[in-house]
Amino acid sequence: MNRGPIGRRNKPAGAGIKTRAAPDTATDGEGESMTRITQVLVPVALVLISLAMVAACQADGEVVVFSGELNKADAAAWGAGSGKVTDEQTYLERDVLEVDTKGFYEGARLHLKSPVPLTSYLTDPEKSFLVLIVKVHRAETTQADVLAGPGADMMPPDMMPGGPGGPPPGEPGGPGAMPPEAPGAMPPEPGMDVPPGGIPGQPEQPGQPPVEALPPMVTKLRALMVTDKGQLDSGAIDIYQAESALEEWYTMVIPLSRFAGDGKDAAARLQDIALFGDVEEKFWVATVKLVAESDPLVADAGAQRIVKAGKPVQFEAKPQTGAARPQYTWDFDDWDGISEDGIGQKVTWTFDEPGFYVVTLTVNDRTGRRLPQTARVDVKVEE
User: Fold this and answer.
1) The domain spanning residue 221 has which CATH number?
2) Which of 36, 177, 301, 325 has its CA 20 to 30 A from that of 367?
3) Residue spans of the chain under pLDDT 70
4) Which domain holds residue 372?
5) pTM of the model
6) 347 has which bridge partners?
7) Number of structural domains, the chain?
8) For residue 177, how many C-alpha atoms fall within 13 Å in the half-sphere facing its CB?
9) Residue 250's closest CA among 337, 324, 192, 326?
10) Which of 261, 292, 323 is the last residue of a domain?
11) What is the pLDDT of residues 65-88, one digit of tens each?
12) Got the DSSP string for 65-86?
């Protein structure tokens, strides 16, 4: 309905005579004008807020496949492996998925009850992620655990004495293989005999029992996304590159750009997610979800480097874009787990002993709205 100019009154019939409005009459007119303006502006503001919320939802998406309950998927085996929901392990008082894996090709899968369109995720795979919260089975701590420690990967061959020909970084050793060196310990010379139960420089002490071999433990995962267009394979992913969400639980944020295969089609529909470990063992999964972010955090600690022992070294993380409120934490000695050795975009650290080190950068959003991101950089410390 066309109201005409706001606040304007119709002229009364026979109004040829000019009259002076009383002061309170003018006030009533102004009040009516303000009321009508409010009636117009408030709905407009609500519409704008709704549009902003819709835009945010379109930019950031999330599909939770599993988080304690099988509402959207059923647990099943893949190959000779198996998967089931159990309360023997819990995460935030929720049941978890137990995966009994026999290696990288036998494990468990979550079969979606309704296929999920991947258009919003595969259109920009650099900004879309498969998020897993996992826990691995650990045996009781032994002396070998202390010597090796989780995540004590070897340095890349081009930074190791002897150059090419050494084992690739992070590859698990075969039966009888010597555990990776602790930080500051140099690799054994070629041909050097290793005393039973020990590493050169770490002889057995009188009265101590011999070191027992470590039982197998899952240190790497492989994720396989099955779509109606084909498969998407993540390859092997180190668990210990992930951020520790709770004690012994790790949050793995895997960009979809890492996945390869025929299923990398924006028109694909997700049907299954299969999970595998690198050895015959069990591990548990608390959360499986797909997340798309319009402006994800970036973790970049720079290139591998060679430094001198006893001299301060500066590390600088790549700055963030957008309106992120990032927190940067650094760990300079990952063989005993990931801890906070330094905080800030720029930090300085001194390595006291020569050897090989893995520096881990974790970037978190203080608001909790963005996924954490992790990066690692290899450092060789010389005398």
Assistant:
1) 2.60.120.430
2) 301
3) 1-59, 139-214, 241-245, 323, 335-337
4) 305-382
5) 0.63
6) 315
7) 2
8) 13
9) 337
10) 292
11) 999 999 999 999 999 999 999 999
12) EESSS-SSEEEEEETT-EEEEE
